[in-house]
Design goal:
Blueprint (H helix, E strand, L loop, with lengths): L11 H6 L8 H9 L4 E4 L6 H12 L11 H4 L8 E5 L8 H19 L7 H16 L4 E5 L3 H4 L4 H19 L5 E4 L3 E4 L17
Parallel strand pairs: 2-3, 3-4
Antiparallel strand pairs: 1-5, 4-5
Amino acid sequence: MAKKYPIGIQDFEELRTSGCYYVDKTALVYDLVTKGKYYFLSRPRRFGKSMLTSTLKAYFLGKRALFDGLSIATLEKDWTEHPVIHIDFTGNQFPTMDNLLERLDEIYKSLEAKYGTTGIKDPGLRLGKIIQLAYEKTGKQVVVLVDEYDKPLQRYESRSTRADARPAERSLRQSESDGRLSALRISHGRVAVQPSQHIQRRQQSERYLV
């Protein structure tokens, strides 16, 4: 069966199970995860940022079969399955702040159904609690992937709406700024990758995040 070009496909699992061509860059993915702490990868629009996020998701979920025949299959020995929190802002325009908060609530509810209800309304604190619950339930460090993390913020860049954007900024950045959140952050024009950052909560020794 002839291979196909993965036109319009942004999901790694779909690409690998659909008989599509794939340029193997998984050795670089392995390096991102296992070496260093902070990376800045500059990429233009439509240049594979969502595919990179999806590839990392499959890797951290321990889906080894998807990587058969690729470089990372021989580099990675453990294939540990981690809880993955994938926050995806692609395909949404967020014309109002309520739209953004509704999207976050939708994402959080699906995560709470899996890891436990938080009872917290503040989006930033709620995400931090979900991370803690995921760690406690699985005993594994948590991976947080955020696709197009700055897309909703770009809607509120003007001075007149900056104050209204503060709840969104807090919900996306609070856990990171207080040392509880490490994320692969994907935006339209850049990728800021922060893997392998070990996080300690205040007063506790548990490490929640990869």
